[in-house]
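Quick one, T. Sequence first:
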Amino acid sequence: MLSSMPVRNGLLFRGVGAGLALLAGLFFPGAATAADPAGEAPGLMKQIKVLPDKAPDCSSLKSIAETVTRGCKTNDEKAIAIYNFMQLSHYHRAYPGEPGGLPVLKEINVYGWSLCGGLHSEESALWRALGWDWRFVGWNGHTTVEAGYDGKWHYLDVFLKFYAWMPDPSAPGGRTIAGEDELTRNSNALIKQVFFVDPERKCVYARDNQFAMYGDKVNWRAPSFLSCGDGIDDVIGGLKTHNRAGSPEGWAGIDHASHGYSADVNLAPGFALTNTWDPVEGAWYWAGNKTAPAHTCGGHKDTRNDPGIGMVLEPYVRSKPARSYANGTLTFTPDFSTAAVLDGFLASENAKQAGKALMPAESGKPGVVVVRLASPYIMTKASGEAAGADVVEVSVDGGKSFKAVELADFSAAVNGQVAALVKITFKQALQSLKLAATVQNNSGSLPYLSPGKNTVTVSAADPQALGQNKLAVTYAYRLGSRNRSFEQLCEESKELAKAHNATWDDQVLCVEKVFAAKDLPARFEIDCPTPKGKYPVYPRMIFVRREVLGPGQKPLPLPEGARAPEPAAAGELASLPNPFLTGCEPPPRKVERKVKTLKISLQPGHFVTRSGSVPTSDFIKWPKNGQEKVDPMAFLIGGELKELPPAKALDGARLVFPAIRGHQSASTKVGAVLLAAPIEPGQPYDFANLGDVLGTAVVPGLAQDAADWSPPKEFKLDVLKAVRAVARGESKFNGFALRVVPDRGVDDGWTGRVHIPKQPKIYLEVDVAAE
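Structure tokens:
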């Protein structure tokens, strides 16, 4: 029997042709670009795939391109979908190079960070999978790439996070994504006049497509651009230096070619692969670097305003200061109680199953088994236990050579490898064995769940290869919700995807399914509901696990306290739009409504200081910085807001106040704030109850020897967001306050002040949509 099977170095390599491949020298190299070693375990299940219907399939470049562009109707939409996928799966950090070149597919699954040339090599590889052309274009200090489709070149920069539209009568909707030549020739019309910086959210929007209220609806799907801090003028300046650099199949060591790498998940009986969305401290691999990989632009600035992929990544904002690496585990725990145990090993010699152990088949000679630890993900740490083992050796060159290791920690031997062979020699009984490798996976490429209903497909290359074994699939996650609508987030000047007013349950939910060969391919559903009265967010993913179980084996334990989800109630399966199609919609139409303007008189109050001292002056002031010893002074305004129209009918609300004098040397910015506590006439006021600045106006300076303004000048402050909140019943109206807002661009660094009449007429001017 043994003589009919391929043998190398006295070891039986199981699987047809495996030994011949080994003898031919088809080994994986020792670098991190390693492919699987030749040969396979008899019970190996190939191409195990677990895919929710809304998540990308990252098993190949073709499958990524196909799944992220589903639902796209035009090539422009496909280009945007690829652009959005790159934002989901990548952040800024120096190139994660590997000796011999790093395949794009491996970078997507294992790393998830790069600089401009690498990111654009990956983007162009996905375009290539769609059958498009591509060309690299160099700027001074920057590498870009353009896609060739529909007879034109199109520029989508996934590093700067920018693209722009241009008119095209032949394209659907009369527009197409512009190329760099067009943007350079018409930078004023296509960029300068189109885009602006949102000062509150510190990102860039198109002027006709921004996160703002359009009538009573919010345009929350508006795509954000240049979110990591690059400027509009920087783009225009860079375009002026652009020059073509050809169409290579890679850039900066990140290559379209696979170099033998495969993202297939292949597991033998006793193996489990668990991918998580979280990092293990110190369990990262980055060749030649001593600093853990993390986004160089912290604070989640790249995703916190993104209405698509930002929502997918929002559940992780509070668990890490910036996007970074994530980990999983590859484990092997064979069931020694069955004769089928050897089906999980790559090779064996002089080994047989007896009782609940492996024994030498021929006494006087040691038994040997070889395990292949292999997955699409780089190993960073490894350890194991083997009761009865005499020698443990590891090979990272496909079996050409083995090196003895301490099984308790053999991380150094496998660090940076996607595959390794572990050879265990035993003279007596091998009573138990457990191997565990920590792997590095890019959480942005994992098969996440979405709010609402998820249909999960489970498949394998050859289901019948499962034989009498079972395939177990487990999802672990935590549900969440938001108690504010997008309209409310907009009016409160909050970012869309920074977990504002959102919470995720502490309870871990687990869905575990076990399949026999006859069940595959299989589908099952996972509902991610949103409680009534709340708003949907993406679930906080914990892990996805695949296990091949030998006869009689049970799945790995679930997290402590985890439970199965309860059936979703009717009306709770709220969903969110496809994140990859963000930016495909045309700009919203401007809402024009006839309005009538109402005046609501307010009660002028009194001046107050932070210190509580009674002011004798008639002006408001504020220190220009924290070091200036100036007692801030504000003016309180009371009254009632009775019979306000419904919030959706409010088109505008302005607090109108008079002033008789500005600062003698400079203009002064004045802001309105909402009060969190009522006013007591003539009494001090706690400045902790002054809310955020709602709207501002600039009061011009007035020379010292000039007369006061008579009649007083009126100034208007936008307070629509606050008034809408009162109209919705979300805020109680305790009054407003006027305060100075230091702004060197307005006051030139002077400590601004504005004088107010002793008996000021202050009122609210409200625009109400006519029926």
